[in-house]
Amino acid sequence: MSDIQLVNVRKDFGATKVIKGINLAIDAGEFVVLVGPSGCGKSTLLNLLAGLETITDGDIFIGGKRVNDTPPRDRDIAMVFQSYALYPTKTVRNNITFGMVARNIPKADQDAAVAEISTLLQIERLLSRKPGQLSGGQRQRVAMGRALVRKPDVFLFDEPLSNLDAKLRIEMRTEIKKLHQRLGKTIVYVTHDQIEAMTLASRIAVMDNGHIRQFADPATIYEEPVDLFVAGFMGSPPMNMLPGKIRKQGGQYVVTTGSAEDAPLDFPLPPTLSKRVGAMEGRDVILGLRPEAIFAAGTELPGAHRFVFERPVSVVEPTGPDTMILFHHVGTDIVARVRPEDARPEGALFQFEADMEKAKLFDADTTLRI
Length: 370
Description:
By secondary structure, this protein is of the alpha+beta class. The protein has helices at residues 42-50, 92-102, 107-121, 136-148, 166-183, 194-200, 218-223, 228-233, 271-274; strands spanning 4-13, 16-26, 31-35, 57-62, 65-66, 77-80, 154-158, 186-191, 203-208, 211-216, 240-249, 252-257, 265-268, 284-289, 294-296, 306-312, 315-318, 323-329, 332-338, 349-355, 360-363. The longest helix is centred in the middle third of the chain and has 18 residues, at 166-183.
């Protein structure tokens, strides 16, 4: 296993600055996921680690060794691509052993490696087939097998599941997590899918516009986002954002959202948040409430600080175990997650309850969490 250090790493493509001074420390054996919207620089950062792109400035260390000028083949890494990159005319066995043949690995060692890896990935019966005879999930296993036989210290995954259907993505996600548990190798994994990031990672780096906005474990990223971008990107459905103003009402602080025409709501802040806003009365803020923090009034859930309000249902979205109910407020649709039996038809008045202990507050000017 090797740790990875990125020190003020920058990458420019001509006048376009893609990676803008990233510092990142990844522990040996960690599963780190780089997540962010398309074009944020996550795949470029992975290519810099792999040596497929040269850095413009800064330093990259793998296992304590500076690798800025080290060619990809000498970095002791293996990469699994989105496109699988399999040789269509070669069998599964020959795809897996292609690199070993190029390095003149003895045939007996090749056979032993193929036997071990094919058992691990459950592809023993596929060894004589060619990629065109395989499903997407099987091809991805072969691509992983080709990387595994190298026995590198670091694995790099570049959106490996994006070409698979939803069911296969879930299955392969589980397989990759099991693989990491068995091998304990350092993995850096790129995806735009925040569900993949949350389920796979030991730590997540949320990227935006060439920067890392937050680097933390999944629970911290979800429950304690540093700013509006992270709060809005992580979560499905995303966090509800309600612009409002901090006011003092009856001895306690509230966030008033909506205008007189929009039937304003006064969300009471729990003690933990009230302590932080004592000097902010009258300030514009963004109140963040995840869909699971808004539910049918009377639902028996833990939490002492609740706020009950009523709004007409605008849209109903059944998802199976839960139902998403949307209502209109402050110029946008707010999403509540309710039990299917609590759902009401569109247009009906619905009594909602918000768990204010789960509320987040963000500064409207800086977008940072308060």
